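SAMPLE LOG
Freezer: B-3
Tube label: C17
Construct: single chain, 393 aa
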Amino acid sequence: MYTASIVSMNVISIFDPSVNRDFFGKCLCVSRHSWYAATRRCVMFKLLRGGGRYWSIVMKKIFTHTYESIISVENLLEAWKEFLRGKKKKEDIQEFQARLMHNILELHRDLANKTYTHGSYQHFKISDPKPRDIHKAGVRDRLVHHALYRILYPFFDRTFIPDSYSCRIGKGTHKAMNRFRTFARRESHNHTKTCWVLKCDIKKFFASIDHGILLKILEARIADADILWLLREVISSFSSKIIEATPLGLPLGNLTSQLFANVYLNELDQFVKHKLRAEYYIRYADDFVILSRDRKWLEDMLPRISDFLQNELRLTLHPNKVSIETVASGVDFLGWVHFPNHRVLRTTTKKRMFKRTYGLEEQHAVVQSYLGLLSYGNGKKLQEKIISATINK
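STRUCTURE (predicted):
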């Protein structure tokens, strides 16, 4: 059985002559030459086993790409190709496309000279299903978002826990729901014991993200001052409100907001997994659950989570969306109510589905989308109802 105690935390330069790179390389099973890639923030651990003492280092990954790799013409062109998908018929896209190379080169010069300034946003509302405020940036700025995202995402994605499922390649709601089912089965010993679920929701998450805290989190991973300048330019381009001279909020319309949201809540993920030692924890955006057979332990964890969110991230839990329930009684998570051996569509989602599909052809995209959604749970009868309603309209 290993036990670990933190001994020290500091920044170590691998160019320091006192650093034995061969020794550390052997400990970490990496070649000594790979140490020259970048400096790392290190946490020293003392491991105790059978009376013996061992030392190990937990490496904190540091972003090694340069500012030039983000703003290069090549990256901007690749970002444009990705950004263009599904948008070719939009008028503002066609205007930018008409003078593409001129616009790309001009943007590159502004970024290289650091004369680039983020433009304003177009505001509109959608119902998805509840009303949401969307802020849409101009084409030029959205291209910058894509250029940043395609370089930053692969790095930050490796720092996230496996059970964070929102806005990540290879994740999503369906995998999160399947993971919930797996965790419920494990913790309940195949549903022979009572399994409790602490379910939480963060109140007005995107509108409450603290710009200062977000930038500090990014600065801990990114050393390049020019990249940080561009990130500040993007982040400071929008705020939903200002409290105590601190701007808050990220726009829902930005691609970078999806990444920044996961970077921000990764702090919570790491706290829950490594400080609270929660084995069965799942987060999707600002919704998260913890499963345990011990209700008292979940009750004790709740104030610690609330305090961490308030003190470290300036976030609060939604008072009406925190609950501790048993899996046997049904747990409402990600639009479905989960039971030990099946899951059913949430009643409000069901009503909205019938309202939106009424009077449509069976092959209509909305109908097909809901038919696909129902295939992920016990929705065969609902599928039949939708199909019969479209045929007999």
